[in-house]
Specification:
mainly alpha; 113 residues
Length: 113
């Protein structure tokens, strides 16, 4: 990535979602227009945190749930949360808090380097 994590995150928060996502995923504009409909900033935070961890959004949700609840999700919970996340862009509070922690730690590590 050519920009620092904090700059990418700031561009996402400033409303430049398309620019931020292009930088995160290094996609051309046409591909981004095809793959992503406009989304809320919280959805973008989950995408960024998963990218920083080099994992999928699916795996990120599983991990975040386990961290907050101290157990693995049942198959029904997993299907419900992932579907709600992908289709409706509804972000569970525990996923958002985990994402913000990861982004904050990533920015701090980047600044220290």
């Amino acid at each position: 990535m050519s920009m620092g994590i904090l700059k990418i995150f700031n561009s996402l928060l400033a409303g430049n979602l398309t620019v931020g996502l292009r930088r995160i995923f290094e996609l051309p504009q046409a591909a981004l227009d095809t793959l992503y409909r406009p989304c809320n900033p919280e959805f973008a935070e989950i995408l960024l945190a998963a990218r920083l961890l080099k994992t999928s959004e699916f795996q990120f949700l599983q991990s975040a749930f386990s961290q907050w609840h101290g157990r693995e999700m049942t198959e029904a919970e997993l299907n419900q949360h992932f579907r709600s996340f992908i289709i409706d862009q509804k972000i569970p509070w525990w996923a958002l808090q985990t994402a913000r922690k990861i982004i904050h730690e990533g920015a701090r590590e980047k600044d220290a380097a």
